[in-house]
Design goal:
With 169 residues, the chain is an alpha/beta fold. It has 2 domains: 3-124, Transcription Regulator spoIIAA; 130-169, no CATH class. It has 5 helices and 9 strands; from the N terminus they run βββαβαβαβαββαβ. It has helices at 33-47, 66-77, 100-112, 124-129, 147-155, and strands spanning 3-5, 13-16, 21-28, 54-64, 88-96, 117-122, 131-136, 142-146, 162-168. The strands form 2 sheets. Strands 1-2-3-4-5-6 form a 6-stranded mixed sheet. Strands 8-7-9 form a 3-stranded antiparallel sheet. Helix 1 runs parallel beside helix 2 (66-77). The longest helix has 15 residues, at 33-47. The radius of gyration is 17 Å and the shape is globular. The relative contact order is 0.12. The model has no long low-confidence stretch (mean pLDDT 91).
Length: 169
Amino acid sequence: MGILIDKTVDCPYVSFNENGILEIEGRSISEDPFSFWQPLLEWIEAYIKAPATNTRVQIFLEYSNSSSNKYINELLRKFEDAHGKNTEVLVVWKYEEDDESMSQLGRDFESVLKVPFSFVALDAEKERAKRIKIRNKKSGSEAIITARYWDAIVRNGHGEDYLILQELS
């Protein structure tokens, strides 16, 4: 069973699933980082015992404090022994193209960890503006949703229930 945590003002969105897609996105400035991060670390410990063939850890942080950074480092370290043995791990570190501190944080993690990293600079305003118009195949109802929400629908195996009518910008 995976983990899905909605984004709050001080905690990031988290979506971990057994298919090997692990996402963390948002701000991580919790006053009680142990309570937030410990269940994630425990989930990863269980996951790496029987992981997917490929594991993709996608991190897109707006900001994180030093306590969160300690836990993120610990989280990524759990993949070092598993990488190349029972799963191929790739950390995709996303950051806003003008955010040098988040870019550097990812590069700092890369320099101390033995897992491959890929860096993606994003135009955050453009990413937030992406919308998709969909239609439910059964009910015929239509909706305009964010591209991120569409990704979650597909990851959870419900993409075939919908038709994409239009991609909006």
